[in-house]
TrEMBL record:
Main location: membrane
Family designation: Belongs to the glycosyltransferase 2 family.
Protein name listed in UniProt: ceramide glucosyltransferase
EC number(s) given by UniProt: 2.4.1.80
Length: 498
C-alpha cells in the first residue's frame, strides 16, 4: 500500500472516530459555545444600540450636544459649576505611533467640572516624558496637567506604583479618580458620563469600560480582541485595604480591584458609552501578541486571599476547558471534510461510508453556528463603531473597513488554541516580562523585580511603543505576521488610517 493510500485510510478512520458518541458530544458542545457567544454579543449590541437611539432622539429634540448629555439642561452653567472634581491618573511607559493622538483626546475633555491630569512616568529617561512635555506646552493655559516622576517600583508592578504615586499627588478636593491607560482614545463627554453615573449611584465601587480594538492588519492585532473610575476617598482612607493590597506585591490592578470588590460585595458597573477606540500598532508581530497573551494569563497567578486564589483557579480551569472546547470541533470538521474530499476524488460515493456522511452533517452544523457567531460579532462591532462616531463627532470617523473578517475568524481559533498553552506556561514559570521589566511571583504576590535593558524587549506589546530613549532594532515580523499582512492586502486594498 502506498503512503498516500495510508493517508486516505487514516483520514477515513479518523472521521469514523470523530463520529463516536464522545466526539459528537464534543462537537455539539462547541456548537453551544458558539451560540452562547453569539447571544452574549447580541445582548451587548442591544444595550449599545439603545444608547444610540437615545442620542438620536435627543438630537431630534433639538439637543445638538447629545454626545455630552441626553438632557441639555445638564449642560447649563448652574449645573456645571456644581460638578465634582476629578483627577485623571495615567501611568505611562514608552512612546509610540498613536500616543500623541490618544493624549490629545484625553486632555481635551469637555467635562465642565474641575479636572486635573497626572501623567506618571518611571523616570525622565522614558521617551514619553519628553513627548508629553512638548504636547502640554501647547495646552499650558487651558489644561491642568502635570508630569510626575514616580521612580522605580520595588514592591509591586511599575504600573501600580505609578498609579499610587499619582493618587498621592491628587487635589485634596478630588471626589473621583480615573485611572486611564494611555493607549485608548477618550470621547469628549466620557469623563462627564462616568461622573454622572457615579453621582447617581454612590454604591458603585468601580466603573470600567472596554476598548474597541482597531486592527492594524497583522494577525497579532486580530488576536487581541481600560480604565477604572473610583472614589478618591477609597484611596485616601485605604478603604478595604485597597492601597495596601495594590502596593504590597500587587501585579494586576484589574484583578486586585475585582477581588476586593468581590470580597466586600462592592458594585462594579460598565455604562454603555464606555467603549473607546484602541488603535493597535501597525507592526504588531505574532511574538508581541504572544507576550501580550502571556500577560493576560499571568494575572490568574496573582491573588490576595485564599478565596481569590480559588476563584482564579476556577477561571483558569474553565477558560482552558472552554477554549479547547471551542477549537476541537473545527479540527474534527477539517478531518471530516478532508476524508469526504478524498473519497469523492477516488470515485467513491459518500454513501459508501456512513460515518463520512455523518461527519459532513456535523461539519455543516458547525458552519451554521460559526456564521451566526460571526454575524453577531459583526453586528456588535458595527454598532460600537457607530456609537464611537456619535460620541466623538469632531474626530475622523471610524469604519468597519479596517476589519478583515477572515482574519477575525482565524484569530479566534488561534487565540483559543494558544490560551491554555499560555496559561500553563504562566502557571509553571511564575514570572513575566512586562514592558521590559521581569516580575517574579511567590504566593500570588510580586517577590522579585528584574530590570535589564539588554535582556528585555525594546517595544511594548500592543501599542508598539519604544520603551527606551534610543530607538531599538525594529522587530522582525514572524511568518504569521507576514502571511496575515499579505492576506489583508489581498482582502483589503486600502488601509484604514487610525
Amino acid at each position: 500500500m502506498s503512503p498516500f493510500d495510508s493517508l486516505d485510510a487514516f483520514l477515513i478512520y479518523s472521521s469514523g472516530v470523530f463520529c463516536s458518541p464522545l466526539a459528537i458530544f464534543i462537537q455539539i458542545q462547541g456548537y453551544l459555545i458558539c451560540l452562547i457567544l453569539a447571544v452574549g454579543w447580541a445582548f451587548a449590541a442591544y444595550v449599545r444600540s439603545r444608547e444610540i437611539r437615545q442620542m438620536k432622539d435627543s438630537m431630534k429634540g433639538g439637543n445638538s450636544f447629545a454626545f455630552l448629555s441626553h438632557d441639555i439642561n445638564d449642560l447649563e452653567h448652574s449645573n456645571q459649576v456644581n460638578l465634582p472634581r476629578v483627577t485623571v491618573v495615567m501611568p505611562l511607559k514608552g512612546f509610540g505611533e498613536h500616543n500623541l493622538h490618544n493624549w490629545r483626546t484625553q486632555i481635551t475633555s469637555l467635562y465642565g467640572g474641575p479636572l486635573e491630569f497626572h501623567f506618571v512616568v518611571e523616570s525622565m529617561d522614558d521617551p514619553a516624558y519628553h513627548a508629553l512635555n512638548r504636547l502640554l506646552a501647547d495646552f499650558k493655559d487651558d489644561v491642568d496637567a502635570k508630569i510626575i516622576v514616580a521612580g522605580l517600583s520595588t514592591t509591586c508592578s511599575q504600573k501600580i506604583h505609578n498609579q499610587l504615586i499619582g493618587v498621592e499627588r491628587m487635589h485634596k478636593d478630588s471626589k473621583y479618580v480615573l485611572f486611564l491607560d494611555d493607549d485608548v482614545r477618550l470621547h469628549p463627554g466620557s469623563i462627564g458620563a462616568l461622573t454622572a453615573e457615579m453621582e447617581k449611584n454612590p454604591e458603585i465601587f468601580i466603573q470600567t469600560g472596554y476598548p474597541l480594538d482597531l486592527p492594524s492588519g497583522s494577525l497579532g492585532s486580530y488576536c487581541i480582541y481600560e480604565y477604572h473610575m473610583m472614589h478618591a476617598d477609597d484611596f485616601r482612607n485605604n478603604r478595604h485595604e485597597v492601597v495596601s493590597d495594590l502596593r504590597d506585591g500587587g501585579y494586576s490592578d484589574d484583578m486586585t480591584l475585582a477581588a476586593i470588590a468581590g470580597a466586600h460585595k462592592r458594585l462594579i458597573t460598565s455604562p454603555p458609552v464606555a467603549v473607546f477606540p484602541h488603535p493597535l500598532a501597525s507592526d504588531l508581530s505574532f511574538s508581541r501578541y504572544w507576550n501580550y497573551l502571556r500577560k493576560q494569563t499571568f494575572v490568574l497567578e496573582s491573588y490576595t486571599t485564599k478565596v481569590n486564589w480559588i476563584m482564579n483557579r476556577a477561571l483558569f480551569s474553565s477558560h482552558c476547558y472552554l477554549s479547547w472546547g471551542f477549537v476541537a470541533p473545527y479540527l474534527m470538521a477539517v478531518v471530516h471534510l478532508a476524508a469526504a474530499i478524498r473519497i469523492y476524488s477516488l470515485g467513491h460515493s459518500l454513501g459508501d461510508t456512513a460515518h463520512t456522511s455523518r461527519g459532513l452533517t456535523l461539519a455543516g452544523c458547525l458552519a451554521i453556528c460559526t456564521f451566526i457567531e460571526l454575524l453577531s460579532m459583526w453586528n456588535l462591532t458595527r454598532i460600537e463603531v457607530q456609537l464611537c462616531n456619535m460620541l466623538s463627532p469632531e474626530a475622523l470617523p471610524l469604519s468597519l473597513a479596517s476589519y478583515n473578517w477572515c482574519l477575525v475568524f482565524v484569530a479566534m481559533l488561534v487565540d483559543n488554541f494558544l490560551y491554555p498553552i499560555s496559561a500553563f506556561r504562566s502557571h509553571f514559570s511564575q514570572s513575566i516580562n512586562w514592558s521590559g521589566i521581569r516580575y517574579h511571583l511567590k504566593d500570588g504576590k510580586i517577590s522579585k523585580i528584574d530590570r535589564s535593558k539588554d535582556k528585555g524587549p525594546k517595544y511594548t506589546d500592543l501599542g508598539g511603543k519604544r520603551l527606551y530613549g534610543k530607538r531599538g532594532v525594529h522587530p522582525n515580523s514572524s511568518i504569521f505576521g507576514s502571511w496575515s499582512t499579505n492576506l489583508t492586502q489581498w482582502r483589503q486594498p486600502r488601509k484604514f488610517d487610525v
